[in-house]
Write a structure and sequence with these properties.
heterodimer, A: alpha/beta, Ubiquitin-like (UB roll), de novo design (two linked rop proteins), 3 domains, 13 strands, B: alpha+beta, binds flavin mononucleotide, binds iron/sulfur cluster, binds FE2/S2 (inorganic) cluster, 4Fe-4S (chain A), iron (chain A)
């Protein structure tokens, strides 16, 4: 049984209220940090913990914090990225819905560490219910003296606000988020300067994911060294995984990093196997932007060793045979799913969400969507498959922000691993409309064949 | 492109203006443009959509150019630039939800309501559209209904029919 650091009390009735959260040991990290540690000591603990950003890029949080510029007399900001819109990812919404005070507590500790006196939680606008939940939690914390002026008599002031977005995936990209928070269109900025130097209102700013910020609470409570003992190698601590697709028990799971992928998919403690007694065809391990892998490469590395849920193991083999941890959005496809159709769906998503600033992304995503649509609907040509690879290569690395890459990788990887399925669509233009190609490279049948129906 | 629909003069209530001022107070002096997105949500919650006149009045309230409001309103997917049904059913149409039946559900809604995506039913009560991943992929198919974005998970055809019926009776 894995240790739970973030979700330990998830099933306690009333844990969404200040009083119950406090009874369960909540806000101890704020007391400890503000009363017994200096801001630099908090940063040091986070560095020691080895925590890596949970928003997608996996950049070490403590290191990011130490890059923050501190010019005299200039405000500094902490902005929490709660835009969660990467397809397959739903852990932040889950955390905010059920344990909002974990985020508020983390925001106070982190803002203190960075010397921020005003902080914002940028929540995607569609999460209006979560915005209300957070606003209530903030009011409760303020009432109890954990926010506002002179917190706990320590002389530290912090105001915390929730900012709604307007519905745009690109606002999850941190500089687009800052533009949006300034009341503008979500067009990513050209970097440098990085937000650590010139972020919100031109001031030094740190942008961190909801889960990264919540993780600072157990790190401060138990110490960075304790946190670093969990996990494997440079993948320390626990991670929230959003599991979706054709699983017996989809949902949000907190795992110790390093858990074997096979155990995550098939054990009853986690996803409980593939739904309806079917077999696994493929997975997207870290949200729609990361490369798709066929089942055999999901469970095992190219050399036959088991693949683990860790930053290193998931990317083992590079793009040839690996994928990425990303945001931890784990999507499972059963044998009845069509890879071409899903690739088209994702391409449509990225085309819809491209902000339109760079032509490779704006034009390339539209082009890929169109070509994939025609292959899916039986109008494709053999040359279209290489055309897709060509377009994806021309987007990758040639854009202002990583959305271009995020659009290119799913297409390139689907063709890399499932080319026969794309070719079959071209060769069988009628049949492909109502028949399924089925399994391409599936894993050895898994011992546990019978499947419980969840509930 | 921003298409100018019917112009009806808009008057913001004093309650709404109070809300505007509270929002503006969240930002440092001189950075009040940050209030734009939350203010547009408030206006849309009250009026159902963002008419050009409403947007111009928001611009005047924030002392910014009208175009600064239009470019924001037209960029983000949540803002409606034309009138909608009283209830807008927004169904997630992204990959993970499609693995568990979102496309079938959208076809079913189209049949039930008898209008195409983006159109309004003759009684003015409903419109529907597909939207992108709503961060609930493990509980799909899902849909939401503004202005409070009430959320419905693990849907099927029967549950959607019941939901529509309940809303009709309201
Ligand atoms: C297109 C795009 C979308 C992104 N969406 C999100 C998101 O929804 N949530 C998030 O935390 N990070 C997202 N990111 C990553 C952020 O830019 C940023 O790296 C992250 O918020 C940093 O927080 P962390 O260091 O705590 O992970 C996105 C990046 C890109 C390029
Ligand atoms: S890569 Fe795409 S989303 Fe990113 S800035 Fe360029 S056009 Fe916009
Ligand atoms: S794909 Fe529908 S909620 Fe994520």
């Amino acid at each position: 049984m894995a240790r739970k650091l973030l979700l330990e009390h998830i099933n306690v009735p009333g844990i969404n209220t200040f009083d119950v959260y406090r009874q369960k040991g909540g806000y101890r990290a704020v007391e400890k940090a503000l009363k017994t540690l200096t801001p630099d000591e908090v940063v040091e603990e986070v560095k020691k913990s080895g925590l890596r950003g949970r928003g997608g890029a996996g950049f070490p949080t403590g290191m990011k914090w130490s890059f923050l510029a501190k010019p005299e007399g200039v405000a500094r900001y902490l902005v929490c990225n709660a835009d969660e819109s990467e397809p397959g990812t739903f852990k932040d919404r889950y955390l905010m819905t059920h344990i909002p005070h974990a985020l508020i507590e983390g925001m106070i500790v982190s803002s203190f560490a960075l010397g921020a006196n005003t902080s914002y939680i940028y929540v995607r606008g569609e999460m209006m219910p979560q915005i209300r939940i957070l606003e209530k939690a903030i009011a409760e914390a303020k009432h109890a003296g954990f926010l506002g002026k002179n917190i706990l008599g320590t002389g530290y002031d912090l105001e915390l606000y929730v900012q709604p977005g307007g519905g745009a995936y690109i606002c999850g990209e941190e500089t687009a988020l800052l533009e949006s928070l300034e009341g503008k269109r979500g067009n990513p900025r050209i970097k440098p300067p990085f937000p650590a130097i010139a972020g919100l209102y031109g001031c030094p700013t740190v942008v961190n994911n909801v889960e990264s910020i919540a993780a600072t609470v157990p790190i401060i409570n138990d110490g960075g060294d304790e946190y670093a003992k969990i996990g494997i190698g440079r993948s320390t601590g626990t991670k929230l995984i959003s599991a979706s697709g054709n699983l017996v028990r989809p949902g949000v799971y907190e795992i110790d990093l390093g858990l074997p992928v096979e155990e995550f998919i098939y054990s009853d403690e986690y996803c409980g196997g593939i739904a309806n007694g079917k077999r696994l065809k493929a997975t997207v391990a870290g949200g729609s932007s990361v490369p798709i892998l066929p089942a055999n490469l999901t469970l095992k590395l190219a050399n036959g060793e088991p693949r683990l849920m860790s930053y290193e193991s998931l990317s083992e083999g590079g793009f040839a045979t690996g994928s990425m941890m990303g945001s931890g959005g784990f999507i499972a496809f059963d044998e009845d799913q069509c890879i071409v159709r899903n690739t088209w769906n994702f391409a449509r998503f990225y085309h819809h969400e491209s902000c339109g600033q760079c032509s490779p992304c704006r034009e390339g995503t539209g082009w890929m969507e169109k070509v994939l649509h025609r292959i899916e609907y039986g109008h494709g040509k053999m040359s279209d498959i290489d055309l897709l690879v060509d377009v994806s290569k021309k987007i990758e690395g040639n854009t202002i922000c990583p959305l271009g890459d995020a659009a290119a990788w799913p297409v390139a990887s689907a063709i890399r691993h499932f080319r026969d399925e794309f070719e079959w669509h071209v060769k069988e233009p009628i049949k492909c409309l109502d028949t399924n190609y089925g399994l391409a490279n599936y894993a050895e049948p898994i011992a546990k064949a019978e499947v419980t129906t969840g509930n | 492109m921003l298409k100018v629909e019917q112009q009806q003069p808009v008057e913001f209530s004093s309650a709404l203006k109070e809300k505007f001022d509270e929002i503006i107070s969240r930002y440092p002096k001189g950075k009040h443009k940050s209030a734009l997105l939350p203010m547009l949500h408030e206006v849309q919650a009250e009026l159902g959509w963002l008419s050009p006149d409403a947007m111009d009045k928001v611009a005047a309230y924030l002392d910014i150019q009208n175009i600064e409001v239009y470019e924001v309103a037209s960029f983000y997917s949540m803002y409606f630039l034309k009138p909608q049904g009283k209830y807008v059913l927004e169904v997630c149409r992204t990959g993970p939800c499609c693995l568990v039946g979102a496309e079938k559900l959208m076809n079913h809604i189209e049949q039930n309501l008898g209008v195409k995506e983006g159109e309004v039913t003759p009684d003015g009560l409903f419109s529907w559209r597909g939207v992108e991943c709503l961060a609930a992929c493990g509980y799909g198919p899902v849909l939401q209904i503004g202005p409070e974005y009430t959320f419905y998970e693990n849907l099927n055809e029967q549950k959607v029919d019941e939901l529509i019926q309940d809303l009709r009776k309201k």
